[in-house]
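Before going further, learn to read the protein records used in this course. A complete example follows; check for yourself that the lines match position by position.
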Amino acid sequence: MPIERTCPDCGEELTLNFSNYTATCAHCGYRRNSLTGLDEKANQVKEHGPQHAVLLTHKGEIYPRARSAFYTGHDHLHRGNPEAALEAFQRALSLQPDFTDAHLWIAKLIDDEAAKREHLSFILANDPAHLEATREIMILNGDMTREEAERTHHYNDPELRQADEAVQAAFDTLECPVCMGDLTVHDDNNHVECKFCGYTATRPQPTMGIGATSLTAALLKRKAQQTKWVIGERLLHCNNCGAQRTIPGTKLSSHCPFCDSNQVIVQDALDSFEQPVGLIPFAITRNEAGEHIKKQLSTFGNRLRGIFDNNKVARATLNGYYLPFWIFDVYVQVTQTTMYYGGMGGGYIPAQRSEYSDAVYDIAVCGVTSPPQHLTAKLGAYNLKKMVAYDPQLLARYPAELYSIDFDKAALEARSIVAKQMREKYNHGVRRRSGFEDEREEEIQVSTMPQYMDFQLVLMPVWVATLIEEDDDMRTALVNGQTGTVVLGKARKPQAR
């Protein structure tokens, strides 16, 4: 019986391992045990060589002589001769210097760290999402142990576990290093300063491109962990007054209710979250945010709704928050397929296929569920050139939320956004082609395959308002704290108690 060689998850070819009778997918990590027909395939490999089980990852043409040398290297490995294998892989590379798989296996066999890094870096420069090269470079960089890397070959995700009790957290107290007074952030210049003695911290400078992480590397690191924790509450022991309290797992910063000290969480005992890498300061003041909301409420659409419903605002709350956003850069391969229909005299016209490389930058996906994502998605673009490196002291004035939507879920939303943009860019709908003897309709279909994604976690300034109307209906309003863009939610009846 033939072996099924196609991965059921991603459609790539599986790699067979005859030492433990398994098959794995180097593309997505799928693993299958106890394959039917594996004994028969093992005999074929013994007879004809290991090239029957080697998965090639090189994108593009492979020269025949380079391929032959590469398989010769695996023949030597199969016979337990790594020195001869290394010579064969180096010969394959001399015949084709861009041969990805030759670079990879040389990196696996040599001990020189600098040379190993050079080969892996070449692979990742040409194929940033190369799974095996990413795994090897993470081991080299100390981001994963070899044991953790071995765990990334399995298909199962880490076990999702809910913490049974509040998790101990470490935090920074935001206090003046001179007089121990409260710090704040000045509205005009975003300086961190003391309200009592006049101390001023160094002004943060705009920084671009800080802390971007490969999605492939992040997913591998996640898969290497045996458990992913869901935290309901965290436990804080105040260093100022000695009070011990719990705070919701969604809070990154909090004031002590007993001594009013401002505290920012930096880590918890389960290492369950990532710190932001950047922050965009508030540029819109509270008064300006309120004026923007009033202007939006006075638009024609809102006045028209007031004819049928008493939507005049009786009272409101307005507070500034830093909300976590995952910022993605996505590089894609776009396939545009044009199909023709109809026509009497022109004969058959085959479908035409074109491929393009494209990219979408700075896709922002909010990492919280409250405010709801259908509102935060409408806040508009932030100018990331104004981003500064994250420092807990920058939260001295406005509190910050911790993400509840992790990067892997946010990446799916980013992929959906990119796919929509690519369809709009490359799909021109159904068009009619008219000629003297023939008339046809053409339909364009667009498919998008992400090639590489990187991301970073950034705190964005948002004003959040709760508007209570005269008929007791409630509405949420959001204001982009950098640009002033206003988003109004729908009015809803108060929940019955």
In short: The CA atoms of residues 175 and 182 lie 5 Å apart.
